[in-house]
Amino acid sequence: MEEVIKGILWMIKRAWEGDGDPLTFQWYVDVLTLLKEFEDTEHKEAHELSKTLRHYIAKGMMKAKEKEDWFDLYKESLKFDAKDFFDAYLVFLEIDRRPQERFYQPRRKILKEAADAMQALADDELDELFIAMPPRTGKTSLLMFFVTWLIGRDSEKSNLYSAYSDFITSAMYNGVMEVLTDPDTYKWHEVFSGNISNKNAQLETLDVGRRKRYPSLTCRSLYGTLNGACDCSGMLISDDLIGGIEEALNKDRLVAAWSKVDNNLIPRAKENAKLLWVGTRWSIADPAGVRMMMLEESPEFADRRYKVINLPALDENDESNFDYDYGVGFSTQFYRQRRASFEHNNDMASWSAQYMGEPIEREGTLFTPDGFRYFNGELPEREPDRKFMAVDPAFGGGDFTASPIGFQYGNDIYIVDVVFSNEDKTKTQPEIAEKASKYRLDALQIEANKMTLPYKEGVEDFLKAKKYRMSITTKPAPPNTSKEQRIFDKAPDIRDMCVFLEPSKRSKEYNLFMQQVFSFKMIGKNKHDDAPDSLAMLMDMVRNPAGAYTVFKKPF
Fold first, then answer.
1. Which CATH fold would you assign to the domain 103-359?
2. How many CA atoms lie within 13 A of 204 on its CB side?
3. How many CB atoms lie within 10 A of CB 410?
4. Do the beta carbons of residue 402 and residue 392 sit within 8 Å?
5. Topology of the domain comprising 362-541
6. What is the pTM of this model?
């Protein structure tokens, strides 16, 4: 049977490539019919082939003049896969709603990464999963649908959902009940056959299938009664265990929250239960952060399979990740305005934590917006004493090439522009050469290491093509000083001498560069420190104007 199915799929593929009529509808009907029979013997393979078939059905639905039969077949294919694939379930669940009223479809282009990871957790490919997303981007609703899928797949397992307040757990309970009891809106009962056998809104518990000692779902706040409430054999889900910035700023509250998690929440899970941590990150010391650190650093957790997904508000191009269809998300302009507001309030730590999923500790940050000087793009009305650039090159691994351009006027260094990119050298070398030529720089210094020489030669080649000549040197980092210490040592000079562009005058690169500067901390780990390190390099290149000299006649 498998050969027959693959044979018809091959014919469909060839037809779409021009060899036959791709709208031969019966082919698609036959494959789906055969897949339903094939599922009994080769379950996994049948559903993998079904995804391939649905791809071609979708193409046919777009091309056919009469779309109704194609759409019905598309829905039937989704229904066939919905028990096994969370993504297919999410699409099918709301397929009869108007597109703009659906939750998942307008958000799928972003949320599918999280949905696929949740699938891996449910399929025992992971033991723990961490998902960080900004506020109001759909993370709790995605969890709600995930719970309804888990209960439908295996109602015998007990699942526990916890959040920081009863209000959130109550909303989750009511949302799950709505999906299970509203057939006009959701198609849960077309996928799963179970019925609610027991429910208790006060205790926030429900059973699907038979009534059990430990219900199919229990919703309980972190500070509610967890002991004895649930013996979690399926999925333990934590959702926003920190209530907000007030709690995040209170170290005692963070310690208390982790104590609750470690002593009351995690022990509710059986050894083979899965752990899902979802929420807005507030602090590196929040429960998700503490658990992550344990998995990363403790040898006792070396066998735990885990994954961390961070979906930040703005991507690497400074564009919104959540500009969903039908206007249900947040635009790039919205997030840039939010960032500007945080910067104005000298609270970039909150921006990094809440919106970028990169929590930093406020007492550990070395640079703050109100500690810098700014200019509006207008330079002093004279030629600068010197124009120069420091280059901290990157060679992969997610690091950034960071290159601030300084115009020196006496003791003031105006940072007029930057190169800041995590692209490879084929993109950063020509950009450095372009800006060196554009600003008619006097000097360019590249941090030396074993890979620097070819990088320097590449920049020189691009400058030669522009017929621009300048001094390019390399200089190794001090061998006995850590990068953090170098940045710390140069921090007073960076604050006192550097003059940065105002936020409204910055390019995307410049904004991202400044965000990394403000995120640098002396306490804890830095995910990236290329921008502040390049500023420290620039300070090494500064020439003291007091060292200038004039020639005069000897007076004696």
1. Rossmann fold (3.40.50)
2. 26
3. 11
4. yes
5. Nucleotidyltransferase; domain 5 (3.30.420)
6. 0.74
